[in-house]
Amino acid sequence: xxxxxxxxxxxxxxxxxxxxxxxxxxxxxxxxxxxxxxxxxxxxxxxxxxxxxxxxxxxxxxxxxxxxxxxxxxxxxxxxxxxxxxxxxxxxxxxxxxxxxxxxxxxxxxxxxxxxxxxxxxxxxxxxxxxxxxxxxxxxxxxxxxx
Length: 147
Description:
Helices cover 68% and strands 0% of the residues. By secondary structure, the chain is mostly helical.
């Protein structure tokens, strides 16, 4: 089990993928948890998830947890495979609950009713790299796995 979580290829692919995911998703998590970057903060976000979107509170809580803490742990390279897998599940959930009806493309020109899901597929692809390949070089995971 330890190998499954911590063993990785110590090259640049995992590093680039996990840091990119973390840097892209962390501000979204910070909006939801802390209310910075124009976000509404934890209470308002939870209210939106549970009232407007009618998600169970645990799902809303997990979204915030994965986006904020998962991003930080990915940047650090700590249990990266687990957090990358969580990102895949998160992005699939977001696609099916919020973006699928809007089509594939992002709403660059404002002629759609909302954003498509192409951005989410990029995060899924990067997360698959980390899930399969591991954290790469310069990861906390490397301290837990001895060859």
